[in-house]
């Protein structure tokens, strides 16, 4: 009987210790931050994107690009308890420029001082939302100058280009015609800002001693063959400030992002 009592006491002690450790681990996350890296990787269908390479659309039109850029903002993370961490607004806008990709074709966005948690979802905006736009030049800090230098502002209208694709296209009727897809909002009259929400294939563990990575793939083909398939010959070779054509491209763009995998390091 004494042995039974001792065994029960040891078991109870172990249970209490285990619970205590779990509580300690949870409490230790309070105030703890870490670094999170988001890798944007542009492709076309199942192919890597390469400047100057010809890619074929669903209607047998082909295109090749010399410029590929887009704006990402309002990155937010949701953890396994339903809490959302929004990266600080003043730093939460980025230009993803394929010209800046590494040898693997990846563009890194590094988020520092991210709240420690176990994250299961990432969301972000494609473009600039109206609240940020309403802050004007003074409220947008250095990013306005950066966007102008990168050619991501309209030169003949008010507002940002959210995506910029420049190159040429060919069809059954033309060869190497100019292709310029410049989708964005035009002031407050045309609002093409959209938010994308992506579930993570496994939990992203952010801690002060870890720098996890989320590999986001952008399928550029879906800009043209997404929810709506468009024809360059039918007016989609030159997309600028028109509400209809920019709206179609903006809607297609919502479906071009996916999370390929996650690294917890």
From TrEMBL:
Q: Where is the signal peptide?
A: 1-22
The record's keywords, sorted A to Z, are: Signal
Organism of this sequence: Neotamlana nanhaiensis
Query: What superkingdom heads the lineage?
Result: Bacteria
Pfam family for this entry, one: MbnP
Q: Where is the Copper-binding protein MbnP-like domain?
A: 33-232
The name of this protein is Copper-binding protein MbnP-like domain-containing protein
